[in-house]
């Protein structure tokens, strides 16, 4: 009995050793390194038409595989293979869901990453710290700067406009984008804020966003506009139809303004203020027959002011589709 127990113990030990050796050898496959997932140079959301999205992976000599038709890059016949060890660039021309993974010989493929971009004519949050793509309309460009302390969401940058000239002029405190091809917006969104003006009476204006169908900078020729205004102490935001302003706005407070559901044939657009529908606003003629070629971001100043009666204003996170 003792002899059989000893033999059983030896046999059990040999079997256990074989099992442990087998597990160690087979486990090397489970420890294989996995390729790091792709990174996208632009976060999901709105992307300006013509913008290049760069897809990379931190794994050296890996290959990026991606699709632009919302199909699974692991299974799709339309998958595009990038060059070994290099990033790939995709230009935004329309709404697109980019899906990508990275692979490398001898390693496990990365997980797939999907990022949706909604194409827009203008997308600018001024986070690059420059006014690239915008042109000053005034002689004194010191009135226009990127403010790195006043982002709409509490962090980041924004465009600061300041007008120290006579009310009604756009010469200072104004920037514009000009387009060679006319367009009719389908969606507009931006954040705006303005601060205390030195004037104690009369009307103050700014900031405003104005769309034109000709280079004349008079607001009388605008197709669309919205502006903060103070009429004898009543703070409000005016739109094309000034009979229906948004009242009781506060200075030094960011507000989100959206224009949705454009009907260019009827000359109407829905106004949303901080996410809440307000009213259907007019689109000034010749909107139905013409199209915009200019976008102005301005702060006008004060009726009672004149030189030195500044009106500072900020604009952030502008989207125009």
Number of strands: 24
Share of β-strand residues: 35-45%
- Which shape, going by the Cα principal axes? elongated
The residue ranges in which pLDDT falls below 50 over 5 or more consecutive positions are: 5-31, 165-171, 198-202, 217-221, 303-308
- What's the overall average pLDDT, rounded? 75
Head-to-tail CA distance between termini: 90 Å
Structural class: mainly beta
Q: Helix count, per DSSP?
A: 1
Nearest-angstrom radius of gyration? Answer: 30 Å
Topology as H/E string?
HEEEEEEEEEEEEEEEEEEEEEEEE
Largest sheet: 8 strands, antiparallel
- State the share of residues found in helices, binned by percent: under 10%
Model description:
The protein is mostly beta strands. Helices cover 8% and strands 43% of the residues. It has one helix and 24 strands. It has one helix spanning 2-26; strands spanning 39-40, 45-48, 52-56, 63-67, 80-81, 88-91, 96-103, 113-120, 122-124, 135-136, 144-147, 158-163, 174-183, 188-194, 203-212, 222-231, 234-238, 246-247, 255-263, 268-273, 276-282, 292-298, 301-302, 311-320. Strands 9, 11, 12, 14, 19, 20, 21 and 24 form an eight-stranded antiparallel beta sheet that branches. Strands 10, 13, 15, 16, 17, 18, 22 and 23 form an eight-stranded antiparallel beta sheet that branches. A five-stranded mixed beta sheet has the order 2-8-7-4-5, with no helix packed on it. A hairpin with a 2-residue loop joins strand 20 (268-273) and strand 21 (276-282). The chain is elongated and about 70 Å long. Mean pLDDT is 75; it is low at 5-31, 165-171, 198-202, 217-221 and 303-308.
């Amino acid at each position: 009995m003792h002899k059989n127990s000893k033999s059983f113990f030896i046999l059990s030990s040999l079997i256990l050793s074989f099992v442990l050796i087998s597990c160690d050898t087979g486990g090397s496959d489970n420890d294989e390194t996995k390729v790091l997932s792709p990174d996208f140079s632009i976060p999901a959301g709105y992307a300006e038409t013509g913008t290049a999205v760069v897809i990379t992976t931190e794994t050296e000599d890996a290959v990026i595989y991606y699709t632009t038709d919302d199909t699974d890059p692991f299974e799709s016949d339309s998958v595009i293979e990038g060059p070994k060890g290099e990033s790939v660039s995709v230009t935004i021309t329309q709404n697109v869901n980019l899906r990508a993974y990275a692979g490398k010989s001898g390693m496990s493929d990365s997980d797939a990453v999907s990022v949706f971009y909604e194409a827009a004519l203008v997308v600018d949050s001024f986070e690059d710290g420059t006014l690239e793509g915008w042109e000053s309309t005034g002689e004194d460009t010191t009135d226009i700067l990127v403010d790195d302390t006043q982002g709409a969401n509490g962090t980041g940058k924004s465009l600061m406009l300041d007008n120290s000239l006579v009310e009604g002029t756009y010469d200072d405190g104004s920037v514009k984008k000009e387009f060679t091809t006319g367009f009719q917006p389908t969606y507009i969104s931006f954040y705006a804020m303005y601060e205390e003006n030195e004037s104690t009476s009369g009307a103050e204006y700014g900031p405003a966003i104005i769309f034109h169908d000709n280079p004349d900078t008079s607001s009388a020729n605008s197709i669309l506009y919205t502006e903060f205004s103070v009429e004898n102490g009543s703070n409000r935001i005016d739109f094309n139809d000034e009979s229906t302003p948004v009242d009781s706005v506060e200075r030094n407070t960011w507000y989100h303004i959206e224009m949705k559901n454009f009907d260019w044939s009827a000359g109407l657009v829905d106004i949303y203020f901080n996410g809440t529908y307000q009213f259907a606003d007019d689109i000034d003629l010749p909107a139905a027959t013409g199209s915009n070629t200019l976008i102005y971001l301005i702060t006008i100043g004060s009726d009672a002011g004149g030189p030195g009666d500044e009106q500072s204003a900020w604009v952030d996170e502008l989207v125009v589709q």
